[in-house]
Predict the 3D structure of the following.
Amino acid sequence: MKTVGRFAPTPSGRMHLGNLFSALLAWLSVRAQDGELILRMEDLDTQRTSPAYADQLRRDLAWLGLTWDRETAPQSSRTERYTEQFRRLEEMGLLYPCYCTRSRLRSVNAPHAADGVYVYDGHCRNLTPEARAAYGRAPAWRIRVPEREIALTDGLQGFYSELLTRDCGDFILRRADGVFVYQLAVVVDDGDAGVTEVVRGRDLLSSAPRQMYLQELLGYGHPRYYHVPMLLSHDGRRLSKRDGDLDLDALSRRMSREALLGWLAFWAGIQKTPRPTDLETLRETFDWSKIPRQDVCIRETMGEKEERNGQ
Ligand code: GLU
Ligand code: ZN
């Protein structure tokens, strides 16, 4: 079967090193297998994302040479399809409205073991119609989770499993403002596009069991997962859009594409030094067994940057 992979960036800013690192690995893995690569804009959050950022992301990927074969519809245009799949789950009797406020959720529920999100206590699971009506406002919608372990063998992180009742609880599929959440959208989008391989940051490993549960219910196959290390700054923080000096705008001013690829390949364990390289060379020698599982601290290695910050 042909491998179908994807880039699924959120167009809320310039690509930064962390996104580039995941995108490079997704590209290398798919290209090394002569597979197909899809680009999809994850713009569910219309407040934070914009078409201008999406254009910029396409230019950023193209500048680095990270080609894609087709772009599928952005999430902001897929509400009808998500509604359809949401209704199917509703017909299975798995959904219920939740009226809990943020402060209630914070005060009553224990933090999720893996990602710090609370574990929902099921407060609204069995509300009577009268109790629901009494809230007098639009609810969020949650899906009931099963009392069984959901496990995967991640191509990089190895065995990982969650008992959703213990580790996450019934989770939200649609917010009170009607917006579908990432967990549903990503499953429907990957499933509809026939994605067979998901390469993304390790911070999303704990989402995989929830997504696999939805894949099962909606009749999609499970993709193969590779959750790649996060790049950390010298203080152990994950790089983010706040690290403006590490976004592609700044990086492309101070180094060539080959130099940047050299650093990314070095952090990825593909080459022993950060010497400049090109995608074709990397593709020819790509092998998942070289990629580290652990997060990679990068500031020290790009030491000269600290001085530039002070300018
Ligand atoms: N849109 C997410 C991000 O930019 C990635 C989601 C995914 O790969 O499943 O972090
Ligand atoms: Zn609730």
User: Anything to note?
Assistant: Residues 303-311 have pLDDT under 50 and may be disordered. Residues 72 and 193 are 8 Å apart (CA to CA). The first strand starts at residue 4 and ends at 7. The longest helix spans residues 17-32.
